[in-house]
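Workshop exercise sheet. Pairs work together: one partner reads the sequence aloud, the other fills in the structure field after running the prediction. Swap roles for the next sheet.
Pair: D.N. / O.F.
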Amino acid sequence: MGSYLVWPDYLILVSFLVISLGIGVYHSMTGGRQRTTAEFIMANRRLKVLPTTISLLVSFVSAISLLGMSAEMYCYGTQFLVNIVFVAIMFLTITERVIIPWLYPLKLVSAYEYLERRYQSKSVRMFGASLGIISGILYMGVCLYGPSAALESVTGLPLALSIPVMSCVAVTYTALGGMRAVIWTDVFQFVVMIGGLLAVIIKGLIAVGGVSNVIRLTTEEGRLELANISLDPRERHTTWGLLIGLTITWTHAYGLSQASIQRYSAVDRLYKARIAALLNIPPMILMMTISCCMGLIILAFYSTVKCDPIASGEISNSNQLLPFFVADIFSDSPGFGGLFLSTLYGGSLSSISSSLSGGAANFWEDILEWKLSRLPENRKALINRFLVVLLGAFATVVAFISTYISGPVTQVAVSMIGSVAGPLMGVFVIGGITKVVHWKVRGRPYVTSRVEGVTKL
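Structure field:
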């Protein structure tokens, strides 16, 4: 495996990382040079629709999706793929029709600012922000781990090196260039991701003999499952569980998370924010479908050669399936290995930088700003940069803990996000649809105790 990558591969990967850093340096030296929190956090609310659309997409479609979806299809079948189209249409429509018109007029910087306004409580706001920050750190840790594990399985490069390198790159361009750097690196990384994914899909289909062979071999292996309408809650995946669970989780991510609200609020018109959400439907379905189809192609390929790399012990867990497959089909094609690794890095860096930017904004706006409001703007911006570095350090620690994950990383990530998304979304929705609920009932903190109770389940 270590001999798979050659100098063109390393050149492509290093160039990718240098360009990402360069975008951060450029935006730290242009405009207002990120000297105010308005520019650093919100890009002065002057974002354009297309880059905002792309940034929203790649903030949530990460290397976790690429590695985890392919592992899901290979190990468990197509149940996830069949439902993702309906889920994407539902949660993005809910976001565009309900959430954006509801929250955009408030001109929020932090998503949890709404909780203080609605429940008349700073404690509720800080509690919600704390949950969001912790969830973001956990998510970033898994995002750091995913491509690092891939890199180790293909090249032998130790996780102890690849995790800190990727963390440093994301932290550096986010801390230097603020929101504008995050948005434009997302656009660059999206282009790289599309190129890498298409290369793997095309080469994989050629290797297995086309789409018809993939369908035939998937059916023979018992992985073609169109629907499971069972009501048994003990089953791993059912149509109802996926439709309801994923719709709630992704509605929170695209509609109520800090990363999404930060982007919607940073465009200058309500209709532009709504367009950005709707424009995500086709590419979201496309990216999810490509990620899932790669798993089916991998299944067809190893069914053809009669060798399961997991059963044979060539790889230690299903998260390494995609990079192992790429190493097999591109072993005689210099440069494609570097493109694939750049694809994984791009998927992770985009999600990590969005979480870093959003987490720092939450930490500042919800926890620190009211105590340090008299500081000059340049000092406030400097504190925000420090918060980006601090959150990156915490995420790196979580990434090393994530090395003990054995199942598909998608399942782990969805579990982490869902444990916080459900309760927080409930607090937002209850506040939006009724005036009856308050943060205290008979002197007891009702809202925080309900969220706390659900997250402990």
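Discussion prompt: Strands lie at 440-441, 444-445. What would you look at next?
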